[in-house]
Amino acid sequence: MEEAFGIDLGTTNSCVAIVGSDGLPQVIKNLDDEFTTPSVVYYDDGGECYVGTEAKRGMAVDIDRIVAFIKREMSNKDYQRDIDGNEITPVGASALILKKVVDDANEQRGYEGLPPIHKAVITVPAYFGNMECELTKQAGRIAGLEVLDLLNEPTAAALSYGAKGLEGKTFMIYDLGGGTFDVSIMRMQNGVLDTLSTDGDHHLGGVDWDIALLDYMLMISGLDITYDDIKDERESGKMLLAAETCKKNLSKSEKASFKLVYKRKQYVKEVSRSVLEELTSDLMDKTIDIIRHAMKISREPDAKIDEIILVGGSSYMPMVKQRLMKEFSCPIRLDNLEPDRAVAKGAAIHAAKLAGNGKAKVKIGTDLASRSYGVRCYDSEQDKYFVVNVVKRTDDQVYEGAMNFCTVKEDQTSVLVALYENISEADNVDINKCTLVGEERLSWGFPVPKGTTLEAHVSRSSDGTVRFWEECQGKKVYMEIKYKGMYSDAEIEQMRKELEKKRV
What we know:
Blueprint (H helix, E strand, L loop, with lengths): L4 E4 L4 E7 L5 E3 L9 E2 L1 E4 L5 E3 L1 H5 L8 E3 L12 E3 L2 E3 L1 H22 L7 E6 L5 H13 L3 E7 H9 L8 E7 L4 E9 L2 E10 L4 H15 L6 H4 L5 H15 L4 E8 L2 E8 H7 L1 H16 L10 E5 L6 H10 L4 E2 L8 H13 L8 E2 L7 E8 L4 E8 L7 E8 L5 E11 L5 E3 L4 E14 L4 E8 L5 E7 L2 E4 L10 H12 L4
Parallel strand pairs: 1-10, 10-11, 12-17, 14-19, 17-18
Antiparallel strand pairs: 1-2, 2-3, 2-4, 5-6, 5-7, 8-9, 12-13, 13-14, 15-16, 20-21, 20-23, 21-24, 22-26, 23-25, 26-27, 27-28
C-alpha cells in the first residue's frame, strides 16, 4: 500500500503526520526534535536560505531578511518582496516551508529504514477561496509533492477527534491559529462527519495578540510609537518574538516579564494576564461575531451545540475557554498537547484513505466551502451590474450549479461572461461586494434575438477549486482561471527542479 503525509501548512507553525501501522495518526518530529516547524524563511547575506527554527532565530537579527506569516498573503495579489535578488512570492515561500517539513519527515523515516513519501493532503483555512486554494496546490507541486487533496482545517481537526466521543453530537470546531481563525459547526452521525456551516477570517490569529501586547509595552515604556510604525525596522522582529514569549508565559502564569530593546536601550516591565485579556478583548469579540454568523447561516440554525473543541496553538490562552464558557453552556474540550497537532493528524487520516492505506473510523460526508460564485448580470431598469450566485457557500463543497441567463440586446453575436467570488449566501449580490475571478468572450458568430438563452455552469471540487463554463447556440467556452501570482505548468516544473537541489 502507498503512504501519504497529512500536512498542516500553518501561518506560524507547520506540522506533518502519517497514519502508522497501528492505524492511528502520528506526528513526525522534525530534525530539531520538535513536533511543529516555524513557518518562517530566512535569507542570510551570503545568499543561503533557511526554513524553520533556525530561520525564526533570524527574526531577532534582521527582520528585512525574514519571510513570516506568508499564508496571510495568499490572497494579496499585490504582495511583492525582493531579498538580495530573491523574488519572494506567497507560493514560493510556502513551497520552501512544505519542502522543509517533508524533507525532515522523510529523513526521519530514512533512519527507520522506510522509503520517502511524496504524496500529501495539505490543509487550508476553511475561509480560503478559490485563488488561495489554487496557489496552495501550486506550492505543493513546486515542493515536489503530489497533492492528493486540500482539506479544510476544521474538518481535518474533526477527523482527528472523530473517534473520541463525538458520535451523535453536533459540535463546533473553534480553530484559533497563529494567523488565521476558522469555525465550523459539524455533526457526527453513524461515523459520518457532516459540516453544517463554516466561517472565519484569515487575518485573525495569535500574532494579533502579540502585536496588541507589544503596542502596550511600547506605550508604557514611554515610546510614542506602535509596532506598525517600526515593523520594517531591524529590531521589530526581536520585539515581536518577545511579545510572543510573554503571551505564552501568561497562558501559564498570572504575571510575566516583558523585555524589549529599542535603539540600544532596554525596557523591562511586568505584565499581568488580566491586562493582556483587556487589551485583546476586541479580538475575542471578533471570533464570537464570526461564531454567531456561522450559527446564523447553518443548515440547522436552531441546532443545539453539544460540545466545542478548541484547535490551534492560540487556543491555549485561558481567555479563549473562559469567554466561550460565558457564551455557551456545553462542554469545551482542550486536549493536552492536541490543539497544535490535531489538524495535521486529521489530514493524515484523509491522506491514508486517498492513498488506499486507511481504515478510518470516521468518513467525511457533506463538507462546505466559505465562498459563493456567481455570474455578472445587467439590470437594464436600474442600469447597473450585479452578481447572481450559481454556487453558494451554503451548498455542498462538491457541487455543480447550472443557471440560465439571456442576452440583453438584439442581434448579439457574442457575450463577455464573468465569474465573481463573494462571501454572501444570497441569490443576488452587489457587484461591489464581489471579487472578479475571470472573464471570457463567448462568441457564436451570428446575430440572435434579445433574450436568447445562455447556460452557465459552475462546479466546485473537494479541494475548493472552481471551474466555469458557459454555453449558447451550440458554442461553449471554458474559463481559464489564472490569478496574479500563479505559475504556468512549465514554470512550476522549472521551480521544482531548482528547489529540489536546495537543502533548506
